[in-house]
Specification:
186 residues, alpha+beta, Quinone Oxidoreductase, Chain A, domain 1, 2 domains, five-stranded antiparallel β-sheet, 9 strands, 26% strand, globular
């Protein structure tokens, strides 16, 4: 299979698209033919070797990516054949999503409705869940004014339009003309 592999820490230039062995399918797992993978800001820090207040840097060589969406193409022992061919998304407990194939426990799968694309599903499985948790805690109302920092980022792009639909006044903060224009469009 093909994967984006990191053999050393550094900038994006350390990532290599190369042939690697297929992942080994374990009991209770499925293998997904990947159609979309989530990419996060923190992965850039981990790629650089981590830092204070961050999770530990991955062991090398590493294939990053814990959020993936695609189609189940194989099942391990103890997993029903009814999963084969299903469109799914996962936020797997282990990385490996920057590849054409990934394995994950069947317990981590969410089946996708046909109306939801792979890219949107990957966005919603992690960033969407965090955004919903944030909005549940804040519980914005029409009479509120909400300041959203990094409003052009992943959470901001989901939160700003949702909060506006509630009738809440939103102040979106972002850095630079392109990002502030993005926020205005939300």
């Amino acid at each position: 299979m093909k994967a984006v592999v990191m053999h050393e820490y550094g900038g994006p230039e350390v990532l290599r698209y190369e042939e690697v062995p297929d992942p080994v399918l374990g009991a209770g797992e499925v293998r997904i033919a990947v159609r979309a993978s989530g990419v996060h800001f923190i992965e850039g820090h981990l790629r650089a070797g981590g830092g204070e207040g961050l999770p530990p840097a991955p062991e090398l060589p590493a294939i990053m990516g814990s959020e993936t969406a695609g189609t189940v193409d194989a099942v391990g022992d103890g997993v029903g054949a009814e999963w084969l061919g299903r469109r799914v998304v996962t936020r797997s407990p282990s990385p490996g999503g920057y590849a054409s194939l990934v394995t994950t426990p069947v317990s981590e799968l969410h089946e996708l409705p046909h109306s939801l694309g792979y890219e949107a599903a990957v966005t919603l499985i992690g960033t969407g869940a965090i955004t919903l948790d944030f909005l549940d805690q804040v519980a914005p109302a029409p009479e509120d004014v909400l300041l959203v920092l990094s409003a052009a980022g992943g959470i901001g792009r989901l939160a700003v339009p949702h909060v506006r639909r509630l009738g809440t006044t939103v102040i979106g903060a972002a850095g630079g003309p392109a990002k502030t224009e993005t926020v205005r469009g939300l």
